[in-house]
Design goal:
The chain has one domain: Deoxyribonuclease I, Chain A. It is built from seven helices and 14 strands. The strands form three sheets. Strands 3-4-2-1-14-13 form a six-stranded mixed beta sheet. Strands 5-6-7-8-12-9 form a six-stranded mixed beta sheet. The protein is globular, with a radius of gyration of 18 Å.
């Protein structure tokens, strides 16, 4: 099963790119971020015409997340993170699809730092960590997928010295990411590409994509119940070079139907 995440940077403005990628890549389950559209403006029809069911949590002009599936019904289980009833941002959706729980998220950017937006980012990250701990405790097969707006290490950012003061690379944010991983989550892309320079985002300015001056901020995390089924993890980097495309590229993993057989012990 192929599970993907893609920050589309405006689902209607980039719809031709999204539909082309869906048709060519044929992911089974997709988490989308930055819909930048209210619920009534989500392009359900064209997406359904490609064979995908969808649930979405939109917001006018900003934010917005969705989950797509072509491998079975989507049973929505949560809309929004617990912990702040006054939070009006559309940043988290959760659904059971084909035997797996999918958490699709768009973590706040947090800039400028310091300031209220950065404080909100840290609070939101804490809420995610608390909720993720409960998922781990239930021993569920879970994928947490989306735009985390964090580069975990120097390997995940072009010229890290230029990003030391940015909210995406702040020590507090990177520490929060590793607190999350320490619960038992597997960073799929880094697990299968431990030493590679591999990015998921390239700015529109300064010819960043052609120079490969990017960031790795889109992640797919697997709970312990799924980690031994991880078979592949890649970035569809070429999509970033398409006309009128997002500044992110789709990221995807392949999950085997069952864990690989354990090697027989000798003797």
């Amino acid at each position: 099963m192929k599970v993907a995440t893609y920050n589309v940077n405006g689902v209607n403005g980039r719809l031709p790119v999204l539909l082309r990628w869906l048709a060519e890549a044929r992911p089974d389950i997709v988490c989308l971020q930055e819909l930048k559209a209210p619920d009534e403006k989500f392009p359900e029809g064209p997406i359904r015409d490609l064979g995908y069911d969808a649930v979405w949590h939109g917001q006018k002009s900003w934010n917005g997340v969705a989950i797509l599936s072509r491998v079975g019904e989507i049973h929505e289980t949560r809309r929004g993170l617990p912990g702040d009833p006054d939070d009006s941002h559309s940043r988290y959706m959760e659904a059971a699809v084909n035997g797996i729980l999918i958490g699709g998220l768009y973590l706040p950017n947090g800039n400028p730092r310091p300031g209220p937006k950065f404080d909100y980012k840290l609070r939101w990250f804490d809420r995610l960590i608390d909720h993720a701990a409960g998922l781990i405790d239930q021993r569920l097969p879970v994928v947490l997928a989306g735009d985390f707006n964090v580069m975990p290490t120097d390997l995940d950012v072009y010229k890290p010295e230029r990003w030391r003061d940015d909210a995406l690379f702040a020590p507090e944010v990177r520490a929060a990411y590793f607190r999350l991983l320490d619960q038992g989550w597997t960073d799929s892309l880094r697990t299968l590409h431990p030493d590679e320079t591999i990015y998921t985002f390239w700015d529109y300015f300064r010819n960043a994509h052609a120079r490969n001056a990017g960031l790795r901020i889109d992640h797919l995390l697997l709970s312990p119940a799924l980690s031994n089924r991880l078979a592949a993890a890649e970035v569809d980097r070429d999509v970033r070079g398409w006309e009128k495309t997002s500044d992110h590229a789709p990221v995807w993993i392949e999950l085997a139907d069952s864990p690989p057989p354990r090697a027989r012990e000798k003797g």
